[in-house]
Amino acid sequence: KEKISELELAGKERSLAILLAAYIDVCVNCGFLNRAWVTLNNYLNYSNIKISDVKVFDLLYYGYAKSGNVEKLLELWKIMRNNNIKPSTLSFTHRIECIAKSSKHNKDELLNTTLRVMFDEGISINKLFVDTKWRGDSRETVLEAIRAVRPNFNPSVSKLALNYNNCLVNHLNKTEKLNVTSPAEGLLCTNELKLLFHEQLKKERDLYVQVKSIERSQSTELVTIYRDKLATLQSNWEKVIINAFQRDLAGLHSLQQNIRRCGYELNIYPYLTVLNASEYKDIIMNEIRKLAEGSDSYSPTISVLYRELGSQVRLRYENKVKCDEGLLNKLKGIYLEYSRWYLGPRADNCILGRHKWKTVAHKYQQGPSLEPDIPSWPPNVLLGIGKFLYNIIMREIKVDVNMLRKNSNQERLLPAFYTVYKYSNHAVKEEVKPHPLLARLLRGACLPYLSFNVTEVPMVIPPVPWNSLQSGGYVIAKTNFIRLPHQAVLQWKRLNEAPTSHLFPCFDSLNQLGSIPWKVNVPILDLVIKIFNDGGNSKLAIPESPSACPYQEPEQTPATQEEKYQAYKRRMLIRRKKAEMFSLWCDALYKLSLANHFRDKIFWLPHNMDFRGRVYPCPPHLNHLSSDMSRSLLCFAKGEPLGDKGLDWIKLHVVNLTGLKKRDSIDERLAYGNAVLPLIIDSADNPLTGKKWWMESEEPWQTLAGCMEIRNALQCPEGAENYISHFPVHQDGSCNGLQHYAALGRDAAGAYSVNLSPCEKPQDVYSCVAALVEKERLKDAAEGINIAQILDGFVKRKVIKQTVMTTVYGVTRFGGRLQIAKQLKDIDDFPKEHIWPASLYLVNKTFACLREMFSSTREIQDWLTESARLISQICGQNVEYVTPLGLPVVQPYSKPSKAIVNKNNYTTNLNCHYGMDMFEPNVMKQRNAFPPNFIHSLDSTHMMLTSLHCEKAGITFVSVHDCFWTHPKTVHIMNKICREQFVSLHSQPVLRNLSEFLVKKYSYTERENDFFDTPNIKAAKNNLNTFLKQVPQLGDFNLSEVLESVYFFS
């Protein structure tokens, strides 16, 4: 609803402010105060973009405060006033600190003058101590200075705000006597955790973790030769990198010495001095190894590589600032006190990690603040740094192409990396590839260790509780609360504007999930590693080595165009197959190597979320969100006795995993589990040599893990009920997206088909849809339609399941067609030449049957889709909403970024601002994504509510989106909570609340209607106003039925 020109100007002003803030902060920390002063003055006097952000000035004030340069600070203060910029609380804090550290004789006079000006601005002395994020010893310096002129002043700290402000969770604010034990009770003592804290801190300061590879390698003479040659190369490269970096940096510095020529422009020189040369060398060497180990068929584009390399510099810089300002010592004290509470017993009746962390931190007022306000580096800065460092890699890193030839003594040096240009999605993309000899050398060396970024590896201590947008997860390594693309600034703005209390439920859910300790299921790990190193097994989803990929047989020279095309097609298929095998093999190698690294350790998985609120573990490889094999490797570190029903729950879980009894009742499944008990025991005792019953399961590795747990429980001398189990039992939602739609619309028929209503046996929506599709196919076949006849006997549940499941999450007909085609391709008897017409036929029938079955779902989906189209098209804004738990969401789908980096002298071109999600929305993506994003947010809200209430109940809980895990002993408690919270969520007027939010934000008032609007524009605005209020009508389904539905989650 704002003019594009105004949004463009706001975007440019914000972009310049971000660039200047980052630049001045780096200059201040590197001692380039004069450079920062000159640059700021240049943009104030000569830029056509206005600087109105006081933060830019505050950063330079901090530099003058550290050096005690009062004259310069007051001169800058005058300039700020002349530009009509109002000083902030932080401005006065730095002014007072500067006076205190100066050598002036009239300090008292200067301090009293500053206080008078501050009072005139409506800022009290105590406000300085409440609002300021302190750095180094600033707090003590300012307090001493104020007491010099106000001897009786003592700062009073405001009371902590810890309680929720949301009707769904307000009842959890009540304090009551609870007997809650620690998730890690009995696993560690305080002294052990103290040692582990130092181990974790060292890893995070190093940024990389070395992990021993599980790949079986022969220590042959050839491998030794390859390793020696690689070590020599790397040693030479390190010297070359240091020399090249120092030379290029000196050249850049020489260029900047001539101020007239540089024109006071922002440039990357200060960013290349924030670390010492050896640290830049380490960053480049890690990048070289990553590039050399990359896939032959895929690599990120050059801009992604630049940005990621620039990010490595930024991470090290942030760690350095935290260390230099004494933050680590304070953090250590707070963490160790928090860890004593975490390990228990919890005598203070506090059950939330956020409460305890904030309470402990509140006592540590001295020293730096726990959340230093370090400005972020914008994308074009990261690109510039990355380009500078990549120039060294591309230009200086050489390899002798004759080094592996036995009879050659002549050295022939060629670049170790080169660029290739690929045409993809109507654009030419630049990629970096290693020289084939370097890739061969690295593979032949079979290096015994893998290198991981520290945020890709689980923690060996409990994560820091999320208590703000900037603080949580890893100890000092940067962890983003929300995973957002770099250009998505609007959601960050909404998050910063939102009252912190609105985010407390999200913080606490992430904290609960991250507080659960894990361990590796060693018997399963050893078995998987054996199969992996023996060549893999495609049936068990253990990837085969890429070397097993068949080579292209030599062919006769094709004579015709068709033969040439077929030969090319065969080559491409083999190349694609090899690339897929390599990717899967590397993925398994990383997972298994990390699991082996933690085989005798306890570890934790810090969590964060995507922009919709969906929760994910931060470590991407070893976690419970991955494949069947990966999930089977993990179990709870803390065990619980099975109790009376625990063994039955494990049996049910194993039967569920097989996929053989989806339509049977709980009693029938349990009876089947007891009937196949001999096969279960045989699978556990002889997994590779017995009857191999477990291998026929849909989820074979988790099934085998369950078989072993059942055997162990039955062999327990004290009886199965006393067996201490670490095994997680899952309860999975029944097509969870459709469950939310049915509850939103109170659709009784839809609710019954997705098990919201009680029934004797579970309803299987996938089988129902498959039956309807088959019914339509029979009609068409009778009418002589050829493709319907060909599909006879092939319309099965498995073929259409994925399409039905993802329909509510926004899958298009094209995407659904690809899903069905993949399933048909896996059926051996289906004629492969008919896959495409058959998949097109089935996707159309599946969509039609779904719309027929779920009429209420269709209405809600259509309303959400059309609302998003009208908002993005008429208002020209991205669609926003707030989840029921208070998380602001902004859909980050905008038109392509206009960001560029000036290639001359690495200066940033400020005439081009990077694309923001404040304007120019992509209408098609906005409309298609709104329904699935909103449902994902509801799905996540339900999970978070379940998480918070399970924590209060004192039971272990983790989730894989709509699949909830707990100990066998506590499944019944989790099931009760899960149903209660689903009812609680949907008892809120979710759609009406959404409509009211959209109307308030996007509808046009009479005042906003332009007199010069054309009739079409007026009609469009009126249509928007009307449509946003037209919430779909609700049906007559009684939500309380969910409480009695056995198969809602089962």
UniProtKB/TrEMBL annotation:
All residue ranges annotated as the DNA-directed RNA polymerase N-terminal domain in the record: 198-515
Signal peptide: none
InterPro entries hit by this protein: DNA-dir_Rpol_C_phage-type (IPR046950), DNA-dir_Rpol_phage-type (IPR002092), DNA/RNA_pol_sf (IPR043502), PPR_rpt (IPR002885), RNA_POL_N_sf (IPR037159), RPOL_N (IPR029262), TPR-like_helical_dom_sf (IPR011990)
GO MF, one annotated term: DNA-directed RNA polymerase activity
EC class name: transferase
EC number of this enzyme: 2.7.7.6
Annotated NCBIfam families: PPR
Functional description taken from the UniProt entry: DNA-dependent RNA polymerase catalyzes the transcription of DNA into RNA using the four ribonucleoside triphosphates as substrates.
The protein's name: DNA-directed RNA polymerase
Species of provenance: Rhodnius prolixus
Upper lineage: Eukaryota, Metazoa, Ecdysozoa, Arthropoda, Hexapoda
